Amino acid sequence: MKSEYAAKGYFVVKGLFSKDELQKLRSVVLAFHASWQQKNASFYAENAVNSAYLTGREHLDEAGRKQLFRFIGSSRLMDIANSFMNRPPAFMNTQLFFDPVNKLQKNYWHRDPQYHLSVEQQQAALAGPDVAHFRVPLVDEPGIELIPGSHKRWDTNEELEVRLEHNGRKNYHDLSGGVKVALAAGDLLVFSANMIHRGLYGQDRLSLDILLCEPEPGLVKFADDACLPSREIIKTLEHSAAFESTIHLKAIAK
Questions:
Q1: Which residues have CB under 8 Å from 246's CB, separation 6+?
Q2: Which domain holds residue 37?
Q3: pLDDT tens-digit series, residues 123-164
Q4: pTM surpassing 0.70?
Q5: What keywords were assigned to this record (predicted)?
Q6: How many domains is the chain partitioned into structurally?
Q7: Residue 154 to residues 32, 123, 146, 150, 157: CA-CA distances in angstroms?
Q8: N or C: which end of the chain has fewer CB within 10 A?
């Protein structure tokens, strides 16, 4: 996994989670999704393709939050994270990916940092600390399209024009280097947030993403305090180090 991630920026572990595990996780995720849709009805109907902050209190009760924390802090997930990340990871966020309501809505190529960094900063970030998505599809889905190796190199002219919509190009135009990775329920896809990628819509996709990062104050600042576990919950986790790292780094930054 480590060599594959270093070279390509992603890897897939097939069939990591059982049907029973997915059923329990799916019930919590659907409870969150139903509440989120109700409170974000306009955004959901217009152009949403994801939501975030699943471990917060707004949309889930304490039982649901505890279940998510235990899933994230499980030995199985954290052992994989520790096997390839350069340093023991910190918890950053959770996201839920779904199909847009508008079936004609296009997917789009992007690097995650482009939404808060300048082009020059995006380029510099390729040599900096990493953020990784741990994607758990809850149903079989088309998956994601990636540009392998782009987590460590800057865009080609074609990629930059499409991603940033320069010279008449659109961010949904096909890229010659794209590799499609289909996912089945129970798989785990791990990919770098720095790499050029786009989601593939269809089959009523429903994927939980857990974002883990290297323990850097500049990254954990994006972690919402309301989405972190209490000390009581931390004591119940198989692996709590990622949460504790975030809590510690946020505390010393205040």
A1: 90, 91, 92, 215, 220, 223, 228
A2: 2-253
A3: 999 998 999 999 999 999 999 999 999 999 999 999 999 999
A4: yes
A5: Dioxygenase, Oxidoreductase
A6: 1
A7: 37, 6, 14, 7, 9
A8: C
